[in-house]
Amino acid sequence: MLLRFITLTALDAGFDSGMEKCKEILLKNGQVFLSKASKARNKIARMACAWIPSGSNILVHSKSRVVLEILREASVKNGTFHTYVCQSAPDNSGMSMMEELTNFGIKCTLILDSAVGAVMEKVDFVLLGAEAVVENGGIINKIGTSTIGLCAKMLNKPVYVAVESFKFVRFYPLNNRDIPDEYKYKYSTISTVKDLEKEHPLIDYTQPSFLTLLFTDIGIFTPSAVSDELVKLYL
After folding, report:
1. Secondary structure (H, E, C), the chain
2. CA 94, CA 64: separation in Å to the nearest integer?
3. 75 phi/psi in degrees, rounded to 5
4. What is the pLDDT of residues 176-234, one digit of tens each?
5. Is the sign of the CA dihedral 55, 56, 61, 66 positive or negative?
6. Close Cβ partners of 38 (under 8 Å, ≥ 6 residues apart)
7. Percentage with pLDDT > 90 across the chain
8. Residue 75, exposed/middle/buried by CB under 10 A (0-12, 13-18, 19+)?
9. Of residues 88, 70, 180, the one with CA closest to residue 134
10. CA 72, 74, 77 angle in degrees (round to 5)?
11. Do the Cβ atoms of 100 and 71 come closer than 8 Å?
C-alpha cells in the first residue's frame, strides 16, 4: 500500500504536472497513509475481539502488536481465556509477548516451538500476526508460522490472522523457495556468509489453505478474497 502511494503519484498528479506537484501529492498521500496506519490496530482489535469468547484456549506465535491489542481488548470485554505463547526462536520474542500479556492480566503458558504439535490439541484456535499478506492470501511471518499452520490444518483448528491492510503486497510465492534471501536473512548475514543453507531463516511463507480468516482494518476476509482487495487498494 505504501508503494501504491509512491509509484502512482505521477498518475494522480498527471504526467505534465511537474516535480513540485508530485511532491505535494506524495506528502498528502503520506499523511493519509500514516493516519490510517496509526488507527489500524485499534480497528482490528474492536472487530476481532468478538471472535474470542470467554474460556478460550488460544495459541499465538512470536510478538505481534496487533495480536497483543486484540487480546487486551478481548480480556476487558469478554472475560478470561488462556494463551499458549510459542517461545519463537531464534530471538525468543515469545517471551516478551508473554510478559506483556501477563501485565494485562491474561493467563499465559510459554511453550517450546517444538511443542506446537502436542499443544495444538488443547487449543480452540490459533491467532497470528503477519509481516506481509501476499496475493494468493498466504502470509509471510516469523519462522515457525508455517509449521503451526500445518499442525492446525491437520487437527482442524481455525487459524486467524490479524494484519494491517498496508501489509498487503503484490507478490505471489508458491512455496518457501520463492521467498528472496534478502527477506529471509539479515543483511549482515547475507553480506558475510557464503553458504546461506547453513543459516537459520527468520521468516517463512504459510500457504492460504492453512488459514481460515484474516482480520484487517478494512474488513474480515477469507484468504481467497485477498487478491480482489489488492486490486482495489492499487487502483
Report:
1. CHHHHHHCHHHHHCCCCCHHHHHHHHHHHHHHHHHHHHHHHHHHHHHHHHHCCCCCEEEECCCCHHHHHHHHHHHHHCCCCEEEEECCCCCCHHHHHHHHHHHCCCEEEEECHHHHHHHHCCCCEEEECCCEECCCCCEEEECCHHHHHHHHHHCCCCEEEECCHHHECCCCCCCHHHCCHHHHCCHHHHHHCCCHHHCCCCEEEECHHHCCEEEECCEEECHHHHHHHHHHHHC
2. 9
3. -65, -30
4. 999 999 989 988 888 888 888 888 899 999 999 999 999 999 999 999 998 888 777 66
5. negative
6. none
7. 69
8. buried
9. 180
10. 115
11. no
Check: CB of residue 75 under 8 Å from CB of residue 104. Answer: yes
C-alpha–C-alpha distance, residues 211 and 139, integer Å: 9
97-116 pLDDT tens trace: 999 999 999 999 999 999 99
Residue 138: closest CA among 156, 153, 155: 153
The verdict on pTM exceeding 0.90 is no
State the Cα–Cα distance between residues 20 and 122, nearest whole angstrom: 59
| In the predicted structure, residue 128 carries a pLDDT above the cut 60 | yes
Rounded-to-integer distance, Cα 114 and Cα 93, Å: 15
Distance of CA 50 to the CA centre of its chain: 19
Where b means 16+ CB within 10 Å and e means fewer, 12-23 reads ebeeeeeeeebe
Residue 167 C-alpha cell reads as 501489509
Q: How far apart are CA 87 and CA 98, in angstroms?
A: 9
